[in-house]
Design brief:
This is 3-methyl-2-oxobutanoate hydroxymethyltransferase. The protein is 41% helix and 14% strand. The protein is α/β, with parallel strands linked by helices. It has an eight-stranded parallel β-barrel with strand order 1-2-3-4-5-6-7-8, surrounded by seven helices. The protein binds 3-methyl-2-oxobutanoic acid.
Length: 273
């Protein structure tokens, strides 16, 4: 089997991610939302598992990430944590759970950590949420930032196209990245921005920078697991590499099952008591 299995079986921590950046070892990160998938992803040797609010899209079928609730994120996070031994589990704080005020944000963060037993949180935004980020970190909770395309702000942008192409937005992104590092974030996700800008941020910061649609000159990559496994047939953005065609594999298996049931081929004598 082709692949990369780390010989280091120790639990991945924020400290170890920084060490990986320092020695130039790229960080692998992938989403999971349930126990079975998390077991597979962790068993394959993933460094970081993100319980993304993309669960709103890929698990619940919503058009955006906005509808998913704190309770639903905690349900997904608990399921993932039960399946993971080595990877660091990072949970997205959902829309509406931290943008209001600092104490509300802190209360949401504490609920996720207490109830799910995850390792860290991820939050979208820079200067606008920096007070809340600091509060949460001062409570001992590791936070990963998220800049560039921030799907929780889709109604402000109006489109999912590449962000920070103009100078003003790029300058703000660089400032925000430094603010998040100074606030104590242990890592940063950059989504759908020009590769050169992402590379610049990764070189300027000491914390690991993980990209999605942000080119290769960063410290690691993250994708949505259903997308890279080819389960979502219709979703094929340029940045996505599909490592399997599970849509075809699963449709074929399910069609054969239907056919076997209809023709009374399943179950046979060996498949009964
Ligand atoms: O929710 C998510 O899956 C994410 C990744 C796309 C980074 O935030």
């Amino acid at each position: 089997m082709a692949g990369y299995i780390s010989e280091d079986t120790r639990k991945v921590t924020t400290h170890r991610l920084v060490e990986m950046k320092q020695r130039g070892e790229k960080i692998s990160m992938l989403t999971s939302y349930d126990y079975t998938m998390a077991q597979i992803v962790d068993g394959a040797g993933m460094d970081v598992i993100l319980v993304g609010d993309s669960a709103s899209n890929v698990m619940a079928g919503n058009v955006t990430t906005l509808p998913i609730t704190l309770d639903q994120m905690i349900y997904h996070a608990k399921s993932v944590v039960r399946g993971v031994k080595r990877a660091m589990v990072v949970v997205d704080m959902p829309f509406g759970s931290y943008q209001g005020n600092e104490l509300e944000g802190l209360a949401s963060a504490i609920r996720i950590m207490k109830e799910s037993h995850a390792d860290a949180l991820k939050m979208e935004g820079g200067e606008e949420i920096i007070g809340t980020v600091k509060r949460i970190i001062s409570a001992g909770i590791p936070v990963m930032g998220h800049l560039g395309l921030m799907p929780q702000s889709i109604n402000r942008y109006g489109t999912y196209t590449v962000r920070a192409k103009d100078e003003a937005e790029a300058d703000k992104l660089v400032r925000d990245a430094h603010l998040l590092e100074e606030a104590g974030c242990f890592g940063l996700v950059l989504e759908k921005i020009p590769a050169a800008l992402a590379g610049r941020v990764a070189h300027e910061l000491n914390i690991p920078v993980i990209g999605i649609g942000a080119g290769g000159d960063v410290d690691g990559q993250v994708l949505v697991v259903q997308d890279m496994l080819g389960m979502n047939n219709g979703f094929r953005p340029r940045f996505l590499r599909r490592y399997a065609d599970l849509h075809t594999v699963m449709t074929d298996a399910i069609s054969r099952y239907i056919s076997d049931v209809k023709t009374s081929d399943f179950p046979n004598e060996k498949e009964q008591y």
